[in-house]
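seq:
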Amino acid sequence: MKYSVPRGAKDILPDESALWQSLEEKFRKIFALFNYKEIRTPIFEMTELFTRSIGESTDIVKKEMYTFLDRKGRSLTLRPEGTAPVVRAGLENNLISPDQIAKLYYFGPMFRYERPQAGRQRQFHQAGAEVFGSPDPLLDVESIILNLRLFEAIGLKNLEVDINSVGDRKCQPNYRAAIQRYFAEVISQMCEDCQERYRLNPLRILDCKEEKCQPFIEKAPASVETLCDECSRHFEKVIEYLKLRNIDFRINNRLVRGLDYYTKTTFEIVSNLLGAQKAISGGGRYDALVEAFGGKPTPAVGFAIGIERVIEILKTHNPQPTTQSGILFFIATIGEEAKRMGFDLVMKAREKGIAAEMDYLGKSLKAQMKLADRMLATYVYIIGEEELKKGAGILKDMRSSSQEETKFVDLFENLKG
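struct:
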């Protein structure tokens, strides 16, 4: 039987994994600059963690989660997003407190049963950041700037910042009522999903991607029109600080994000190089989530980056040469005795932290030289019968094609990266 990768999943092969490693390395450096510490949470959590935080009426919970029962009948879910697990872990391990700032970041796979398309898989990866402990709008702006710095580090340019405010628990009911009144007149002309959203949570109508629904959604009331004084002041401060830092942005009145836990600021970083699904990063403030999980009232703001979408742009539209790292030297041997000596030298090299390799297929010397070239070896050390007698092999520099006789005992002194 011939097996293939499941639909919606993807193998990351060695040539591409170098690009992933480069991205992660650069991201980690930028996170460190902003004083974020890494956290790693399990791939699966109790299902209620997500239904309670994301919202039972969201598409993620209703249609996209991978949920299963364990052997004791407990409902578990492969994580569809990273914020809820970070909040859970932060509370469980006393990392989150309303009187101190906690900055955490993560990398990892997420899972949603969606229609696969460019930059979107059913198993996908996110890099995310969460900061807890302060309602200061400066942290909203810092999160947006951190996003832009991360993308700048990997060479992504011409990005758009979309921002909005969805209000808090005090003024969100007013917006929900305004949305409900507006869509009452047109909901019969919209898709079945929107009609169900209207019954369960009218705000989710704004997430709809159906073409027939877009003209109605475009005319819907803006959330900023129903903000309370506190949320209005907060949003004005966010705008003021963005302008102070000369960050270009656009107020997007339809930007509510697909998760119910957001309050006040929501934002997306958008690229026009991915077709309909343009957002490569998104986030916002979620000041009520920590308390909903049993913690003390603790304001928070965070975001997540879709790594596959970023990789798609890097590969297709903004290619950067990936630094291919080869081995430092390859030992080419002729004959069984030479192979034994070569294996001993390869192992000694690795013990010294030198990347080394040799042939294990009994190839000819010519074929071994080609193999060394494909491995991007800097040096090739040739050992044959004559070299064994002399106690010295031929060290060839693959960059200059120069070569010299080098004793076995002196080999590692003559290797220069």
